[in-house]
Write a structure and sequence with these properties.
Length: 200
């Protein structure tokens, strides 16, 4: 079949794109609101885009025209955020933090998670997450009803035992992040990995 994105309804464009551009990593983003409440939410329109400087980007769609999601609004105000990465053991709690809570309530408290102080930004990380990147906003682009938040990574927390400190090589049997698959609710395991050496 052919799919004409120019005439497709926006909701259907989402279903097609989000189901076919898979598996996607998931940024589990913590921010703080002006009252100091920690906000957490997952975003699978996410990746890293370069290492010099080290940049990450994720894309919160607006709640309604011109009205950003809390994560994007908090980042506009504080210019800081943390991208936590969930592994399989945390996947259900990660998805639960996508619920919309009444103003002033933290998704971390509601899902039994705890925050831990970051090293260089004021926004805390999720203590249970195996990986957390402390970021400062570099820019937020507004493209239609999408916001593309681009951040520079300043500091990372990695659970002990994942990296060999000599070689900086990951032990891929110990880091099992969860991936996003077809819309709306499919995920994948990353526990079965294999190697393909690059051509010389
Ligand atoms: C696994 C997963 C991935 C998601 N990815 C995105 C995304 O890339 N962009 C987006 O706008 N919403 C995404 N959502 C929905 C947001 O997490 C949800 O709207 C959340 O309530 C936003 O929280 P906030 O208003 O506190 O920022 C995703 C939800 C889940 C469960």
């Amino acid at each position: 079949m052919e799919i004409d994105f120019d005439t497709l309804a926006p909701g259907d464009r989402y279903k097609v794109l989000a189901s076919l551009v898979t598996p996607r990593p998931i940024a589990w983003v913590t921010t703080i609101d002006p009252g100091g409440i920690v906000n957490a939410a997952p975003f699978s329109f996410f990746n890293c885009f370069g290492s010099n400087p080290p940049i990450l980007a994720f894309a919160p769609g607006n709640k309604e025209p011109g009205l950003p999601k809390d994560t994007a609004r908090n980042i506009r105000q504080s210019r800081e955020f943390v991208v936590n990465i969930a592994d399989e053991a945390l996947a259900e709690q990660m998805v639960a933090t996508s619920a919309t809570l009444p103003h002033g309530e933290s998704e971390l408290d509601a899902t039994g998670l705890t925050s831990a102080a970051s090293s260089v930004v004021k926004v805390p990380r999720i203590a249970e997450a195996p990986v957390a990147f402390e970021c400062r906003e570099w820019a937020t682009l507004e493209i239609g009803s999408n916001r593309l938040v681009i951040g520079v990574v300043h500091h990372a927390h990695v659970r002990d035992g994942l990296f060999d400190p000599e070689t900086m090589r990951l032990d891929h049997t110990k880091f099992i992040p969860v991936g996003r698959m077809a819309a709306p609710d499919w995920y994948c395991r990353t526990s079965e990995q294999y190697e393909i050496p690059k051509p010389a």
